[in-house]
Amino acid sequence: MADVLERVTKIIVDRLGVEESQVTLEASFKDDLGADSLDVVELVMELEDEFDMEISDEEAEKIVTVGDAVNYIKSRM
Amino acid sequence: MLQGKVALITGASRGIGRAIALEFARQGAKVAVNYAGSEAKAKEVVDEIYRLGGEALAIQADVSNTEAVEQMVKEVIDRYGRVDILVNNAGITRDNLLMRMKEEEWDDVININLKGVFNCTKAVTRPMLKQRYGRIINIASVVGVMGNPGQANYVAAKAGVIGLTKTAAKELASRSITVNAIAPGFIATDMTDRLNEEIRTEMLKQIPLARFGNPEDIANMVAFLASDAASYITGQTIHVDGGMVM
């Protein structure tokens, strides 16, 4: 399952240009990682592609932190 | 100017949409010709594009139907691999004086002319974000800026499209997606032929260039806004109206 965090971290680092060390489970995309609303939408799109799943708008809105994303993906795998 | 680009044009079987489809094809774009009911007319446009040496397909979809629009965009991407240009052109009129306008007349026009633009814009946003490229061109109307008796529903929808254009432009600008509107004046098409004589006569008096426009007058501007030459223009409403509004 660490694999999910690794894959998510790589996408976040690529997309937002942050250091890997900043990407903790508690980190908020907007508050801690400098993402704007559109960045979050795009991150979700990339996660959908990476993990081959569809994330509904309602579910996507609940993803605030890195941990939210990892937990959601794990729950769907 | 549009060589290799993939364009989706709504309401492209007739009138302004047809002229846009043909102009895009002449400039080298692959064209998805959307239609709601006029299948034969849409196929004629596709045939015409093939005669011009272009590439096109006809897709039926009611733009006010969210699922149908999503399916349509998927079909374009399945066929051509991307979507570079969306032209929101589909529109109807249900004219009546405000006092006499039925709820259904209001709803039909808002659903197709305004919600349809929202549906199509939303559906292409995802592929355009991924591409980091997109051109969205909305066909509004001069009456959306100046008002017009007998067209409360149409005017409200077109004014709404202008506001939607500005908001989408601001939301998507950072991803090299531009969103602009064109406000045609009185253009000679099937739709405007149905307007009553009183409105037509009144409108001609207000046109400094003293003639009704052709669908090609609009198609030329759409093609320009869709091209790389217009990459620094976004959120604008460009009037192509013979000088009706200045």
From TrEMBL, chain A:
GO molecular function, one term: acyl carrier activity
Record bears the keyword Secreted: no
Pathway terms, separated by semicolons: Lipid metabolism; fatty acid biosynthesis
Function summary: Carrier of the growing fatty acid chain in fatty acid biosynthesis.
Chief location: cytoplasm
InterPro entries, per database record: ACP, ACP-like_sf, PP-bd_ACP, Ppantetheine_attach_site
Keyword NADP in annotation: no
This protein's encoding gene: acpP
Carrier domain boundaries: 2-77
Organism, scientific name: Anoxybacteroides tepidamans
Keywords: Cytoplasm, Fatty acid biosynthesis, Fatty acid metabolism, Lipid biosynthesis, Lipid metabolism, Phosphopantetheine, Phosphoprotein
Homology family: Belongs to the acyl carrier protein (ACP) family.
PTM per Swiss-Prot/TrEMBL: 4'-phosphopantetheine is transferred from CoA to a specific serine of apo-ACP by AcpS. This modification is essential for activity because fatty acids are bound in thioester linkage to the sulfhydryl of the prosthetic group. 4'-phosphopantetheine is transferred from CoA to a specific serine of apo-ACP by acpS.
GO biological process: lipid A biosynthetic process
Modified residues (O-(pantetheine 4'-phosphoryl)serine): S37
Protein name in the entry: Acyl carrier protein
Record's subcellular location: Cytoplasm
Cellular-component GO terms for this entry: cytosol; membrane
PROSITE patterns recorded: CARRIER, PHOSPHOPANTETHEINE
TrEMBL record, chain B:
Catalytic residues in the record: Y154
Function: Catalyzes the NADPH-dependent reduction of beta-ketoacyl-ACP substrates to beta-hydroxyacyl-ACP products, the first reductive step in the elongation cycle of fatty acid biosynthesis.
Ketoreductase domain boundaries: 5-185
Entry-linked PANTHER family: 3-OXOACYL-(ACYL-CARRIER-PROTEIN) REDUCTASE, 3-OXOACYL-[ACYL-CARRIER-PROTEIN] REDUCTASE FABG
InterPro entries (alphabetical): 3oxo_ACP_reduc (IPR011284), KR_dom (IPR057326), NAD(P)-bd_dom_sf (IPR036291), Sc_DH/Rdtase_CS (IPR020904), SDR (IPR050259), SDR_fam (IPR002347)
Residues bound to NADP(+): G11, A12, S13, R14, N89, Y154, V155, A156, A157, K158, I187
Pathway: Lipid metabolism; fatty acid biosynthesis
Alphabetical list of SUPFAM superfamilies matching this protein: NAD(P)-binding Rossmann-fold domains
Subunit structure: Homotetramer.
Family according to the record: Belongs to the short-chain dehydrogenases/reductases (SDR) family.
GO BP field: fatty acid biosynthetic process
Entry GO MF terms: 3-oxoacyl-[acyl-carrier-protein] reductase (NADPH) activity; NAD binding
Catalysis: reaction(s): a (3R)-hydroxyacyl-[ACP] + NADP(+) = a 3-oxoacyl-[ACP] + NADPH + H(+)
Enzyme class: oxidoreductase
Name of the protein described by the UniProt record: 3-oxoacyl-[acyl-carrier-protein] reductase
Enzyme Commission (EC) number: 1.1.1.100
Keywords of the record: Fatty acid biosynthesis, Fatty acid metabolism, Lipid biosynthesis, Lipid metabolism, NADP, Oxidoreductase
